[in-house]
Structures are given as C-alpha cells and as structure tokens.
Design goal:
The protein has 398 residues and is α+β, with helices and mostly antiparallel strands. The chain has 10 helices and 18 strands. Bound molecules: zinc ion.
Length: 398
C-alpha cells in the first residue's frame, strides 16, 4: 500500500551532491533506483530499467482510450541542504491542528507554518527534527508507483500509454541533463513534485544571471586626490542605483527581482553576481535594460569603461508552451473537480525540471504531492492527500 511504499523509500538516503560532476552525483541514489526497477518488474512493467546516468524509465502499454502517451516524472534525490540519512518518519493519524513536538528542541507550530491548516483531519508524516523527511520528492515517486500498482490490480480500467521516469540530481540542477526525450517518447508529461494536491503550476520564472565586472584605478591613498577610482565604491553605487523594490525581500507572486548573490572587491577590481527573475519576459528584458543603463551612466560619469555587464540565460518560463497545449491543464482541472478538489493555479517562484523539458519539446506542468517545508527538518506531508493524488493520476490517464 501507499503508506508502506512511501516509508520504505524514505529510509533510503538519496542526497545528491553539487560538488560531484558524475551522473548520478551520488551513487547512493542508485539504491533507490534499483529498488524501483525491481518493484516495477513485480508490477509487470517488464521494460523498466535504470540507464547509465541513473535515470529510471518504464512504460505501461495502454489498453485503449486516450491515444496520447502521458508521462509522469518524479525525482529520487533529496536536497543537500539537510541530511537525508537515518530518516525516522513519524505518522500522526487524523491531525487535529496545534503544535507538533518533533523532538525536545524542535516543534512544528501552526503559528509559524500556516500551511499546517491545510492538513487538519489528515494522516500526516513528520520528521524527528534531525533530518529532512524526503517527501520532496519520494512522495511523488510513491504516488506514481501506487498509480501503476492500482492499474495493475484493476485491468478493467481503460487507460492510455503511460511513460514514467524517476530522475536523480534534480536538487542540484541536473535533473534533465541526461534525460532521453526520444526514449521517454510521451506527448506531454507532469512532474509530481512539491505543493498541495489542488495546485497546478505551469508558470515559472524566466531566469538570467548577470556578472558585473568593475575596473578601478588604484593610486596610493596619500596622493589619491582627483585620481583614485575605487572599483568597490562603484560596485556599491551600482547596487544602490538598482530599484530597491525589486529586491527579493520586497517581492511575491508575479513580482520579479534582481538578487545580488555575491560581491567581491578591491580598489582595482570588483565583481558582482546577480540573478534576475521574472515571469514576464518583457519585464525581465526591462530589468536587463536597467542594468545596462546604470552601467552606461556610471561609465559616462567616470569617463572610461569601468563597468562591463554580461548576461546569461539560465532557464525560461514554460507558460508560452503550456498555453499552446492548454488541454493538458484543462484535463487536470476537470478531473480534480470530479474528485471534489478545488483547483488552484499558482506561479512557481523558481524553475522546475518541467520548465526545461517543456522548452526541449515535452510540455510538462507540475502537480503537487501534499507536502510542505521541503529541504529541512520541518518538512511534512499528508498521506491522505497523497492517496487522493493517486486517484487523480488514475483519472488523468483513463
Ligand atoms: Zn522536488
């Protein structure tokens, strides 16, 4: 059953590692990959296998109905931000609200974590306060596996071809690096990752990075009058000329930001690294324009090319692609309503593997798992919502 399956996956440490260049980034992710392949074989998915990069693929042939091949994707790794070893999950049946003591010095308090209100009455799983839980994204894996198990037990249910993939290294930004779209060969797919089960996400940020390189003029400070130009001081000037209200601290929902992630400086040289984010590509181009305008202004002020700005695209919003294939969202909305789930479309304030896949040609919105507070000891997930999500996936394919 779903619960046992999920708890079994949580016990396997699958933390990915950003320093390692190998694929998968940590070999322990293969422990889960191999278990999943053997479980898929038991569920008659005889073509299931793990490839040389640690990605698990499997295909469940359809028995009529919808002609489209529908894909489902979840990631096996957990975040390097917190330990995923010796996870000791605790189930709270029929959670009635209120504070949950995780251990002697850590508690999950609804005053701090309002999302607990969304799981009142549910069976929920929490940590012992020392590790993350790993529901991100083993809940997604358990939901997909349980859907396959359900279809295997109920051959009378008519469904489309289903293609699944479980990827390593999503948390270190390499979840789609070796993804084989030809092998996956679905018309469209859904990532099942994070968020509550009424949430549908198909809008993510457009993301650029900017590197600002500043050259100063170093002169002995004793004889610096009208001569010295400090690169570090120009860096400070540059940052303060950017619009204050576009700092992450002041933004939410559809508001984009410029975020200074790193600054390094001497009199002679300074560099600043920024990330620029916006759901609207036009507004993101305006942000780029502001960077260029400030650089031009300061270069003019100092009378030489003190500042050079370089931009690089990181990923793009998937929404233009999903909007062209909007039936894949409408279908989910309709099936949610059948199940009494009130759909909510929410913008992702980040990127997803689905965004990259969408731009590679596989439209891929995200559906939730019923969890919250990922990447740390306050992570929790609702088993009740996970079970409901299994029902939703069965309806999506049938
Ligand atoms: Zn995730």
């Amino acid at each position: 059953m779903l619960e046992n399956r999920f708890l079994e996956y949580l016990k396997i440490d699958t933390q990915s590692c950003s320093d390692s260049q190998s694929a998968p980034s940590s070999t322990k992710q293969l422990d889960l990959a191999n278990l999943l392949v053997s479980q898929l074989h038991e569920l008659n998915v005889t073509n299931a296998h793990v490839d040389e990069h640690g990605i698990v693929y499997g295909r469940i042939p359809g028995n009529g109905g919808n002609q489209d091949v529908i894909g489902f994707i979840a990631h096996m790794d957990t975040s390097p931000d917190a330990s995923g070893a010796n996870v000791k999950p605790r189930i709270i049946r029929n959670y009635q609200g209120g504070k949950i003591q995780l251990n002697s010095d850590r508690s999950l308090d609804p005053k701090e974590f309002e999302t607990l209100a969304k799981v009142i009455g549910d069976d929920i799983v929490v940590t012992d306060g020392t590790t993350l839980l790993g529901a991100d994204d083993k809940a997604g894996i358990a939901i997909i596996m349980e859907m396959i198990s359900y279809l295997n037990d109920n051959p009378q249910i008519i469904h489309s071809d289903i293609q699944i993939a479980f990827t390593p290294d999503e948390e270190v930004g390499r979840g789609t690096k070796h993804f084989d779209l030809e092998k996956f060969n679905a018309r469209y797919a859904y990532t099942i990752d994070g968020g509550f089960i009424n949430e549908i996400s198909y809008e993510n940020f457009n993301a650029y990075s900017a590197q600002v390189a500043i050259t100063g003029k170093s002169v002995h400070p004793g004889s610096a009058k009208n001569k010295m130009v400090s690169a570090t001081m120009i860096a400070i000037e540059f940052e303060t000329m950017l619009p204050l209200h576009k700092r992450p601290y002041f933004t939410s929902e559809y508001e984009g930001f410029n975020h200074l992630t790193k600054i390094d400086g001497t009199v002679e040289q300074a560099t600043m690294e920024y990330i620029l984010r916006n759901h609207s590509i036009d507004k993101l181009n305006e942000q780029i324009g502001e960077f260029n305008k400030i650089a031009a202004f300061l270069n003019d002020k100092y009378g030489y090319q003190a500042i050079k700005v370089k931009f690089e695209e990181s990923y793009l919003n998937m929404s233009p692609i999903i909007e062209k294939n909007y039936h894949i969202v409408e279908n989910v909305i309709a099936k949610m309503k059948e199940l009494g789930i009130k759909p909510k479309i929410i913008p992702t304030r980040g990127g997803t593997d689905g965004a990259l896949l969408s731009h590679m040609g596989l439209p891929c919105p995200n559906l939730g798992t019923g969890g919250a507070n990922f990447h740390g000891p306050y992570e929790f997930v609702s088993l009740t919502q996970m079970q409901k999500q299994v029902e939703l996936l069965v309806r999506i394919v049938s």
